[in-house]
Amino acid sequence: MRIAICDDDERELEQFQELIKEYQASREISVDCRFFHNSMDFICEIEGGEYDLILLDVLMPGINGVQAAWELRELDKNVKIIFVSSSPEFALESYSVGAYYYFIKPVDVNSFFPLLDKVASELSIQKEQGLVLKNRKCVVKVPFQKLEYVEVINKTVSFHLTDGAIHEITAALAEFEEKLLARPEFLKTHRSYLINLNHVQAIKDHFVMTKNGHSIPISRKRRGLVQDAYVRFLNQSEEEVPQDQAQPLLSENQSEDLGGSWRILLVDDDGDDRIFWAGILRSHGCIVDIAKNGEEAYRLAEEASYDCVLMDVKMPGEDGFSVCEKLRKRINAPVIFLSCLTESEKQIEGFAAGGIDYITKDTSAELFWIKVETRMRLEVSGHTRLCYGPLLLDLSKHKALMNERELLLTPIEFDILQQLSGQAEHIFTPEEIFEKIWGEQPWDGGQMVQTHMSRLRRKLEKAWEEHHFIEAVWGKGYRFVPVND
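User: That's the sequence. What structure does it adopt?
Assistant: C-alpha coordinates below.
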Protein backbone atom coordinates (compact mmCIF):
# COMPACT_ATOMS: atom_id res chain seq x y z
CA MET A 1 0.00 0.00 0.00
CA ARG A 2 1.38 3.42 -1.00
CA ILE A 3 0.49 6.30 1.33
CA ALA A 4 1.25 10.05 1.38
CA ILE A 5 0.69 12.15 4.52
CA CYS A 6 0.72 15.94 4.43
CA ASP A 7 0.64 17.92 7.70
CA ASP A 8 2.40 21.15 8.71
CA ASP A 9 2.69 20.02 12.35
CA GLU A 10 5.96 18.14 12.90
CA ARG A 11 4.59 16.36 15.97
CA GLU A 12 1.58 15.11 14.02
CA LEU A 13 3.85 13.74 11.29
CA GLU A 14 5.99 11.96 13.87
CA GLN A 15 2.87 10.41 15.38
CA PHE A 16 1.70 9.19 11.95
CA GLN A 17 5.17 7.76 11.32
CA GLU A 18 4.99 5.73 14.52
CA LEU A 19 1.45 4.56 13.72
CA ILE A 20 2.52 3.37 10.26
CA LYS A 21 5.45 1.44 11.72
CA GLU A 22 3.19 -0.17 14.29
CA TYR A 23 0.62 -1.04 11.63
CA GLN A 24 3.24 -2.73 9.41
CA ALA A 25 4.51 -4.79 12.34
CA SER A 26 1.05 -5.84 13.51
CA ARG A 27 -0.24 -6.77 10.03
CA GLU A 28 3.08 -8.05 8.66
CA ILE A 29 2.63 -6.10 5.43
CA SER A 30 4.73 -3.52 3.62
CA VAL A 31 3.58 0.10 3.54
CA ASP A 32 5.40 2.65 1.39
CA CYS A 33 4.75 5.97 3.13
CA ARG A 34 6.01 9.48 2.34
CA PHE A 35 5.60 12.58 4.50
CA PHE A 36 5.18 16.22 3.43
CA HIS A 37 5.29 19.38 5.58
CA ASN A 38 3.12 21.57 3.35
CA SER A 39 0.62 21.12 0.55
CA MET A 40 2.57 23.19 -2.01
CA ASP A 41 5.56 20.81 -1.92
CA PHE A 42 3.18 17.87 -2.18
CA ILE A 43 1.21 19.26 -5.15
CA CYS A 44 4.39 20.16 -7.03
CA GLU A 45 5.74 16.63 -6.67
CA ILE A 46 2.69 14.45 -7.26
CA GLU A 47 2.02 13.26 -10.81
CA GLY A 48 -1.08 11.13 -10.17
CA GLY A 49 -1.35 7.41 -9.72
CA GLU A 50 1.64 6.92 -7.42
CA TYR A 51 -0.40 6.72 -4.19
CA ASP A 52 -3.28 4.52 -3.05
CA LEU A 53 -4.16 6.70 -0.05
CA ILE A 54 -3.50 10.36 0.80
CA LEU A 55 -3.99 11.92 4.24
CA LEU A 56 -4.34 15.71 4.27
CA ASP A 57 -4.43 18.04 7.23
CA VAL A 58 -7.23 20.56 6.60
CA LEU A 59 -5.73 23.66 8.21
CA MET A 60 -2.36 24.40 6.64
CA PRO A 61 -0.77 27.75 5.72
CA GLY A 62 -0.98 28.78 2.07
CA ILE A 63 -3.03 26.15 0.29
CA ASN A 64 -5.21 24.32 2.80
CA GLY A 65 -6.10 20.64 2.63
CA VAL A 66 -9.39 21.04 0.78
CA GLN A 67 -7.83 23.31 -1.85
CA ALA A 68 -4.99 20.82 -2.28
CA ALA A 69 -7.54 18.04 -2.74
CA TRP A 70 -9.11 19.89 -5.69
CA GLU A 71 -5.70 20.00 -7.35
CA LEU A 72 -5.13 16.30 -6.60
CA ARG A 73 -8.48 15.29 -8.08
CA GLU A 74 -7.47 16.73 -11.45
CA LEU A 75 -4.40 14.48 -11.46
CA ASP A 76 -5.94 11.37 -9.93
CA LYS A 77 -9.71 10.85 -9.81
CA ASN A 78 -9.49 7.47 -8.06
CA VAL A 79 -7.04 7.98 -5.19
CA LYS A 80 -8.58 7.74 -1.71
CA ILE A 81 -8.30 11.03 0.20
CA ILE A 82 -8.68 11.21 3.99
CA PHE A 83 -8.87 14.58 5.74
CA VAL A 84 -7.52 15.07 9.23
CA SER A 85 -8.66 17.98 11.39
CA SER A 86 -9.28 18.97 14.99
CA SER A 87 -12.69 20.38 14.00
CA PRO A 88 -15.67 18.90 12.11
CA GLU A 89 -16.54 22.24 10.47
CA PHE A 90 -14.86 21.34 7.15
CA ALA A 91 -16.40 17.88 6.85
CA LEU A 92 -19.15 18.88 4.41
CA GLU A 93 -16.74 20.78 2.18
CA SER A 94 -14.29 17.88 2.21
CA TYR A 95 -16.81 15.46 0.72
CA SER A 96 -17.39 17.82 -2.22
CA VAL A 97 -14.00 16.63 -3.51
CA GLY A 98 -14.84 12.96 -2.96
CA ALA A 99 -13.24 12.43 0.44
CA TYR A 100 -12.99 8.81 1.55
CA TYR A 101 -13.07 9.69 5.26
CA TYR A 102 -12.82 12.64 7.67
CA PHE A 103 -10.75 12.08 10.83
CA ILE A 104 -11.15 14.17 13.98
CA LYS A 105 -7.84 14.46 15.85
CA PRO A 106 -6.29 12.87 17.77
CA VAL A 107 -5.75 9.87 15.52
CA ASP A 108 -5.00 6.66 17.41
CA VAL A 109 -4.59 2.93 16.83
CA ASN A 110 -8.25 2.12 17.48
CA SER A 111 -9.50 4.50 14.81
CA PHE A 112 -6.64 4.46 12.30
CA PHE A 113 -5.85 0.76 11.94
CA PRO A 114 -9.39 -0.42 11.05
CA LEU A 115 -9.52 2.24 8.36
CA LEU A 116 -6.19 1.12 6.89
CA ASP A 117 -7.48 -2.46 6.95
CA LYS A 118 -10.54 -1.42 4.98
CA VAL A 119 -8.45 0.41 2.38
CA ALA A 120 -6.04 -2.54 2.06
CA SER A 121 -8.97 -4.91 1.58
CA GLU A 122 -10.49 -2.78 -1.17
CA LEU A 123 -7.15 -2.50 -2.95
CA SER A 124 -6.74 -6.27 -2.80
CA ILE A 125 -10.17 -6.79 -4.36
CA GLN A 126 -9.33 -4.35 -7.15
CA LYS A 127 -6.13 -6.24 -7.98
CA GLU A 128 -7.85 -9.64 -8.05
CA GLN A 129 -10.43 -8.78 -10.67
CA GLY A 130 -12.71 -11.37 -12.19
CA LEU A 131 -16.25 -12.60 -12.65
CA VAL A 132 -18.25 -14.15 -9.82
CA LEU A 133 -20.34 -16.99 -11.25
CA LYS A 134 -23.16 -18.68 -9.40
CA ASN A 135 -24.97 -21.87 -10.39
CA ARG A 136 -26.89 -24.55 -8.52
CA LYS A 137 -23.74 -26.32 -7.37
CA CYS A 138 -21.41 -23.54 -6.26
CA VAL A 139 -20.20 -19.95 -6.41
CA VAL A 140 -16.84 -19.49 -8.13
CA LYS A 141 -14.69 -16.49 -9.02
CA VAL A 142 -13.09 -16.66 -12.47
CA PRO A 143 -10.06 -14.35 -12.91
CA PHE A 144 -10.20 -12.41 -16.15
CA GLN A 145 -6.71 -13.52 -17.17
CA LYS A 146 -7.73 -17.22 -17.02
CA LEU A 147 -10.88 -16.79 -19.11
CA GLU A 148 -10.18 -17.99 -22.67
CA TYR A 149 -13.58 -17.48 -24.29
CA VAL A 150 -17.31 -17.35 -23.53
CA GLU A 151 -20.12 -18.91 -25.55
CA VAL A 152 -23.87 -19.07 -25.21
CA ILE A 153 -26.03 -21.93 -26.47
CA ASN A 154 -29.77 -21.55 -25.96
CA LYS A 155 -29.94 -20.15 -22.42
CA THR A 156 -26.66 -21.60 -21.12
CA VAL A 157 -23.55 -19.41 -20.93
CA SER A 158 -20.29 -21.40 -20.83
CA PHE A 159 -17.07 -19.88 -19.51
CA HIS A 160 -14.04 -21.71 -20.91
CA LEU A 161 -10.85 -21.35 -18.86
CA THR A 162 -7.28 -21.75 -20.07
CA ASP A 163 -6.78 -24.83 -17.87
CA GLY A 164 -9.64 -26.64 -19.63
CA ALA A 165 -12.26 -26.07 -16.92
CA ILE A 166 -15.75 -25.00 -18.02
CA HIS A 167 -18.28 -23.23 -15.83
CA GLU A 168 -21.88 -23.16 -17.05
CA ILE A 169 -24.52 -20.66 -15.96
CA THR A 170 -28.18 -20.50 -16.93
CA ALA A 171 -28.42 -16.85 -17.98
CA ALA A 172 -28.25 -14.48 -20.92
CA LEU A 173 -24.90 -13.45 -22.38
CA ALA A 174 -25.95 -9.80 -21.99
CA GLU A 175 -25.63 -10.15 -18.21
CA PHE A 176 -21.84 -10.48 -18.57
CA GLU A 177 -20.74 -8.99 -21.87
CA GLU A 178 -20.89 -5.31 -20.98
CA LYS A 179 -18.55 -5.86 -18.03
CA LEU A 180 -16.19 -7.97 -20.13
CA LEU A 181 -16.19 -5.66 -23.15
CA ALA A 182 -15.31 -2.70 -20.92
CA ARG A 183 -11.88 -4.37 -20.63
CA PRO A 184 -9.24 -4.09 -23.39
CA GLU A 185 -8.61 -7.83 -23.75
CA PHE A 186 -12.16 -8.97 -24.52
CA LEU A 187 -13.89 -8.79 -27.89
CA LYS A 188 -17.20 -10.02 -29.28
CA THR A 189 -16.66 -12.06 -32.48
CA HIS A 190 -20.20 -13.35 -32.91
CA ARG A 191 -23.54 -12.77 -31.23
CA SER A 192 -22.87 -15.96 -29.24
CA TYR A 193 -19.12 -15.66 -28.55
CA LEU A 194 -16.64 -13.48 -26.65
CA ILE A 195 -12.88 -14.07 -26.74
CA ASN A 196 -9.92 -13.03 -24.63
CA LEU A 197 -7.37 -11.55 -27.04
CA ASN A 198 -4.53 -12.57 -24.73
CA HIS A 199 -5.18 -16.20 -25.69
CA VAL A 200 -5.56 -15.79 -29.46
CA GLN A 201 -3.10 -17.60 -31.75
CA ALA A 202 -4.39 -16.33 -35.11
CA ILE A 203 -7.30 -14.57 -36.81
CA LYS A 204 -8.68 -16.33 -39.90
CA ASP A 205 -11.43 -15.18 -42.29
CA HIS A 206 -14.22 -17.05 -40.54
CA PHE A 207 -12.85 -17.99 -37.12
CA VAL A 208 -10.39 -17.19 -34.34
CA MET A 209 -7.84 -19.85 -33.39
CA THR A 210 -6.92 -19.81 -29.68
CA LYS A 211 -3.58 -20.96 -28.27
CA ASN A 212 -5.36 -24.02 -26.88
CA GLY A 213 -6.54 -24.98 -30.35
CA HIS A 214 -10.19 -23.88 -30.09
CA SER A 215 -11.90 -22.36 -33.16
CA ILE A 216 -14.23 -19.45 -32.31
CA PRO A 217 -16.52 -18.31 -35.16
CA ILE A 218 -16.51 -14.74 -36.51
CA SER A 219 -19.69 -13.36 -38.01
CA ARG A 220 -19.39 -11.76 -41.44
CA LYS A 221 -20.52 -8.42 -40.06
CA ARG A 222 -17.72 -8.36 -37.47
CA ARG A 223 -14.86 -9.77 -39.57
CA GLY A 224 -13.04 -6.50 -40.26
CA LEU A 225 -13.71 -5.22 -36.75
CA VAL A 226 -12.14 -8.32 -35.16
CA GLN A 227 -9.04 -8.19 -37.34
CA ASP A 228 -8.45 -4.49 -36.70
CA ALA A 229 -9.03 -4.89 -32.97
CA TYR A 230 -6.53 -7.75 -32.72
CA VAL A 231 -3.80 -5.78 -34.52
CA ARG A 232 -4.34 -2.79 -32.23
CA PHE A 233 -4.36 -5.02 -29.16
CA LEU A 234 -1.03 -6.58 -30.13
CA ASN A 235 0.50 -3.14 -30.65
CA GLN A 236 -0.82 -1.94 -27.33
CA SER A 237 0.34 -5.06 -25.47
CA GLU A 238 3.89 -4.22 -26.45
CA GLU A 239 3.51 -0.95 -24.55
CA GLU A 240 2.36 -2.85 -21.42
CA VAL A 241 -0.97 -1.10 -20.96
CA PRO A 242 -2.54 -2.05 -17.57
CA GLN A 243 -5.15 -4.80 -17.89
CA ASP A 244 -7.65 -2.99 -15.67
CA GLN A 245 -7.72 0.08 -17.89
CA ALA A 246 -11.35 0.98 -18.48
CA GLN A 247 -11.13 1.82 -22.17
CA PRO A 248 -10.09 -0.90 -24.64
CA LEU A 249 -7.38 -0.60 -27.27
CA LEU A 250 -6.02 2.89 -26.54
CA SER A 251 -5.51 5.09 -23.52
CA GLU A 252 -6.76 8.66 -23.43
CA ASN A 253 -3.28 10.12 -23.80
CA GLN A 254 -2.44 7.84 -26.71
CA SER A 255 -5.57 8.86 -28.56
CA GLU A 256 -4.38 12.44 -28.93
CA ASP A 257 -1.25 11.35 -30.80
CA LEU A 258 -2.97 9.23 -33.44
CA GLY A 259 -5.00 10.45 -36.40
CA GLY A 260 -8.68 9.50 -36.22
CA SER A 261 -8.75 9.00 -32.45
CA TRP A 262 -11.32 10.91 -30.43
CA ARG A 263 -13.27 10.81 -27.19
CA ILE A 264 -16.91 10.02 -27.91
CA LEU A 265 -20.03 9.92 -25.75
CA LEU A 266 -22.44 7.17 -26.89
CA VAL A 267 -26.01 7.61 -25.62
CA ASP A 268 -28.27 4.59 -26.18
CA ASP A 269 -30.65 2.62 -23.97
CA ASP A 270 -30.18 -0.66 -25.89
CA GLY A 271 -27.38 -2.79 -24.43
CA ASP A 272 -26.67 -4.79 -27.61
CA ASP A 273 -26.50 -1.64 -29.72
CA ARG A 274 -24.18 0.06 -27.21
CA ILE A 275 -21.78 -2.88 -27.29
CA PHE A 276 -21.81 -3.14 -31.09
CA TRP A 277 -21.31 0.53 -31.97
CA ALA A 278 -18.84 1.14 -29.14
CA GLY A 279 -16.83 -1.85 -30.38
CA ILE A 280 -16.50 -0.30 -33.84
CA LEU A 281 -15.40 3.04 -32.41
CA ARG A 282 -12.88 1.46 -30.04
CA SER A 283 -11.45 -0.67 -32.84
CA HIS A 284 -10.52 2.61 -34.54
CA GLY A 285 -8.80 3.94 -31.41
CA CYS A 286 -11.62 6.05 -30.00
CA ILE A 287 -12.24 6.43 -26.28
CA VAL A 288 -15.93 5.72 -25.69
CA ASP A 289 -17.99 6.67 -22.66
CA ILE A 290 -21.46 5.15 -22.32
CA ALA A 291 -24.72 6.76 -21.21
CA LYS A 292 -28.03 4.89 -21.12
CA ASN A 293 -30.26 7.98 -21.01
CA GLY A 294 -30.25 11.76 -20.98
CA GLU A 295 -29.62 12.05 -17.27
CA GLU A 296 -26.41 10.01 -17.49
CA ALA A 297 -25.35 11.98 -20.59
CA TYR A 298 -25.70 15.30 -18.73
CA ARG A 299 -23.62 13.98 -15.83
CA LEU A 300 -20.82 12.69 -18.05
CA ALA A 301 -20.78 15.94 -20.02
CA GLU A 302 -20.03 17.79 -16.77
CA GLU A 303 -17.12 15.48 -15.98
CA ALA A 304 -15.29 15.28 -19.32
CA SER A 305 -14.96 16.99 -22.70
CA TYR A 306 -15.99 15.12 -25.84
CA ASP A 307 -15.16 15.44 -29.52
CA CYS A 308 -18.52 13.99 -30.55
CA VAL A 309 -21.80 12.69 -29.14
CA LEU A 310 -23.59 9.76 -30.79
CA MET A 311 -27.25 9.95 -29.79
CA ASP A 312 -30.00 7.36 -30.08
CA VAL A 313 -33.42 8.89 -30.75
CA LYS A 314 -35.93 6.46 -29.28
CA MET A 315 -35.22 6.23 -25.56
CA PRO A 316 -37.55 5.96 -22.54
CA GLY A 317 -38.17 9.29 -20.86
CA GLU A 318 -36.52 12.12 -22.78
CA ASP A 319 -35.98 11.25 -26.42
CA GLY A 320 -32.71 11.94 -28.23
CA PHE A 321 -33.93 15.17 -29.82
CA SER A 322 -34.73 16.72 -26.45
CA VAL A 323 -31.45 15.52 -24.93
CA CYS A 324 -29.53 16.95 -27.90
CA GLU A 325 -31.04 20.41 -27.49
CA LYS A 326 -30.17 20.53 -23.80
CA LEU A 327 -26.73 18.99 -24.24
CA ARG A 328 -25.66 21.51 -26.87
CA LYS A 329 -26.28 24.31 -24.35
CA ARG A 330 -23.74 22.68 -22.03
CA ILE A 331 -20.99 21.46 -24.36
CA ASN A 332 -19.54 22.35 -27.76
CA ALA A 333 -19.27 18.78 -29.05
CA PRO A 334 -21.19 18.01 -32.27
CA VAL A 335 -24.12 15.58 -31.99
CA ILE A 336 -24.70 12.79 -34.53
CA PHE A 337 -27.96 10.89 -34.29
CA LEU A 338 -27.76 7.09 -34.55
CA SER A 339 -31.22 5.60 -34.82
CA CYS A 340 -33.32 2.73 -36.08
CA LEU A 341 -35.92 5.33 -37.16
CA THR A 342 -35.29 5.78 -40.89
CA GLU A 343 -38.17 8.10 -41.84
CA SER A 344 -37.09 11.34 -43.54
CA GLU A 345 -39.33 13.31 -41.16
CA LYS A 346 -37.31 12.01 -38.18
CA GLN A 347 -34.04 12.89 -39.86
CA ILE A 348 -35.26 16.42 -40.53
CA GLU A 349 -36.32 16.67 -36.89
CA GLY A 350 -32.83 15.56 -35.87
CA PHE A 351 -31.16 18.35 -37.83
CA ALA A 352 -33.66 20.84 -36.41
CA ALA A 353 -32.68 19.73 -32.88
CA GLY A 354 -29.05 20.63 -33.56
CA GLY A 355 -27.56 17.38 -34.90
CA ILE A 356 -24.90 17.59 -37.63
CA ASP A 357 -25.76 14.19 -39.12
CA TYR A 358 -28.26 11.33 -38.87
CA ILE A 359 -27.01 7.75 -39.30
CA THR A 360 -29.48 4.89 -39.42
CA LYS A 361 -28.66 1.68 -37.56
CA ASP A 362 -28.94 -0.44 -40.71
CA THR A 363 -25.73 1.24 -41.92
CA SER A 364 -22.76 -1.11 -42.29
CA ALA A 365 -19.93 -0.90 -39.76
CA GLU A 366 -17.48 0.38 -42.38
CA LEU A 367 -19.78 3.12 -43.68
CA PHE A 368 -20.74 4.10 -40.13
CA TRP A 369 -17.11 4.73 -39.19
CA ILE A 370 -16.41 6.67 -42.40
CA LYS A 371 -19.38 8.93 -41.72
CA VAL A 372 -18.42 9.55 -38.08
CA GLU A 373 -14.75 10.14 -38.90
CA THR A 374 -15.55 12.51 -41.77
CA ARG A 375 -17.99 14.53 -39.70
CA MET A 376 -15.54 14.90 -36.81
CA ARG A 377 -12.70 15.96 -39.11
CA LEU A 378 -14.90 18.56 -40.76
CA GLU A 379 -16.04 19.83 -37.37
CA VAL A 380 -12.49 20.11 -36.05
CA SER A 381 -11.27 21.93 -39.16
CA GLY A 382 -13.90 24.60 -38.56
CA HIS A 383 -12.68 25.46 -35.06
CA THR A 384 -10.14 28.18 -34.30
CA ARG A 385 -7.19 28.68 -32.00
CA LEU A 386 -7.43 31.84 -29.92
CA CYS A 387 -4.15 33.44 -28.85
CA TYR A 388 -3.72 36.01 -26.09
CA GLY A 389 0.03 36.51 -25.79
CA PRO A 390 1.42 33.42 -24.05
CA LEU A 391 -2.11 32.03 -23.51
CA LEU A 392 -3.53 29.83 -26.25
CA LEU A 393 -7.06 28.40 -26.29
CA ASP A 394 -7.43 25.39 -28.58
CA LEU A 395 -11.20 25.14 -29.02
CA SER A 396 -11.01 21.99 -31.13
CA LYS A 397 -9.26 20.03 -28.36
CA HIS A 398 -10.83 21.92 -25.46
CA LYS A 399 -7.38 22.75 -24.09
CA ALA A 400 -5.54 25.80 -22.81
CA LEU A 401 -1.79 26.27 -23.09
CA MET A 402 0.51 28.81 -21.44
CA ASN A 403 3.84 29.28 -23.21
CA GLU A 404 3.13 26.00 -25.07
CA ARG A 405 2.61 24.08 -21.80
CA GLU A 406 -0.84 22.67 -21.17
CA LEU A 407 -2.85 24.07 -18.27
CA LEU A 408 -4.62 21.30 -16.38
CA LEU A 409 -8.08 22.84 -16.47
CA THR A 410 -11.32 21.06 -15.75
CA PRO A 411 -14.00 21.23 -18.48
CA ILE A 412 -15.92 23.83 -16.45
CA GLU A 413 -12.81 25.97 -15.93
CA PHE A 414 -12.06 25.88 -19.66
CA ASP A 415 -15.64 26.87 -20.49
CA ILE A 416 -15.45 29.81 -18.09
CA LEU A 417 -12.15 30.96 -19.61
CA GLN A 418 -13.55 30.65 -23.12
CA GLN A 419 -16.67 32.62 -22.25
CA LEU A 420 -14.78 35.46 -20.62
CA SER A 421 -12.07 35.68 -23.29
CA GLY A 422 -14.72 35.88 -26.00
CA GLN A 423 -15.71 39.34 -24.69
CA ALA A 424 -12.50 40.87 -23.40
CA GLU A 425 -12.87 43.72 -20.89
CA HIS A 426 -16.59 43.01 -20.48
CA ILE A 427 -17.50 42.59 -16.82
CA PHE A 428 -19.43 39.36 -16.32
CA THR A 429 -21.59 39.21 -13.21
CA PRO A 430 -21.60 35.90 -11.30
CA GLU A 431 -25.20 35.42 -12.44
CA GLU A 432 -24.19 35.77 -16.11
CA ILE A 433 -21.36 33.28 -15.74
CA PHE A 434 -23.61 30.82 -13.91
CA GLU A 435 -26.27 31.01 -16.62
CA LYS A 436 -23.76 30.47 -19.44
CA ILE A 437 -21.99 27.53 -17.76
CA TRP A 438 -24.71 25.77 -15.74
CA GLY A 439 -27.74 26.77 -17.83
CA GLU A 440 -31.07 25.93 -16.25
CA GLN A 441 -29.74 24.83 -12.86
CA PRO A 442 -31.13 26.80 -9.88
CA TRP A 443 -29.01 29.81 -8.90
CA ASP A 444 -26.94 28.99 -5.81
CA GLY A 445 -26.01 32.53 -4.83
CA GLY A 446 -22.66 32.47 -6.61
CA GLN A 447 -20.86 29.80 -4.59
CA MET A 448 -20.08 27.54 -7.58
CA VAL A 449 -18.87 30.46 -9.68
CA GLN A 450 -16.64 31.70 -6.87
CA THR A 451 -15.14 28.24 -6.26
CA HIS A 452 -14.33 27.49 -9.90
CA MET A 453 -13.20 31.03 -10.62
CA SER A 454 -10.80 31.00 -7.67
CA ARG A 455 -9.17 27.80 -8.87
CA LEU A 456 -9.00 29.00 -12.49
CA ARG A 457 -7.37 32.32 -11.56
CA ARG A 458 -4.86 30.56 -9.32
CA LYS A 459 -3.83 28.22 -12.15
CA LEU A 460 -3.41 31.10 -14.60
CA GLU A 461 -1.36 33.14 -12.15
CA LYS A 462 0.80 30.15 -11.25
CA ALA A 463 1.49 29.44 -14.93
CA TRP A 464 2.43 33.06 -15.78
CA GLU A 465 2.96 35.52 -12.93
CA GLU A 466 3.61 38.55 -15.17
CA HIS A 467 -0.07 39.16 -15.94
CA HIS A 468 -3.50 38.56 -14.39
CA PHE A 469 -5.71 37.38 -17.22
CA ILE A 470 -8.86 37.40 -15.10
CA GLU A 471 -9.54 40.32 -12.79
CA ALA A 472 -12.13 40.52 -10.05
CA VAL A 473 -14.06 43.78 -10.22
CA TRP A 474 -15.24 44.59 -6.71
CA GLY A 475 -19.01 44.47 -6.35
CA LYS A 476 -19.58 43.65 -10.03
CA GLY A 477 -17.95 40.43 -11.21
CA TYR A 478 -15.05 39.31 -13.40
CA ARG A 479 -13.45 40.33 -16.65
CA PHE A 480 -10.83 38.94 -19.02
CA VAL A 481 -7.82 41.19 -19.61
CA PRO A 482 -5.69 40.36 -22.66
CA VAL A 483 -1.94 40.97 -22.69
CA ASN A 484 -1.03 44.41 -23.99
CA ASP A 485 1.36 44.22 -26.94
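The chain has a mean pLDDT of 81.
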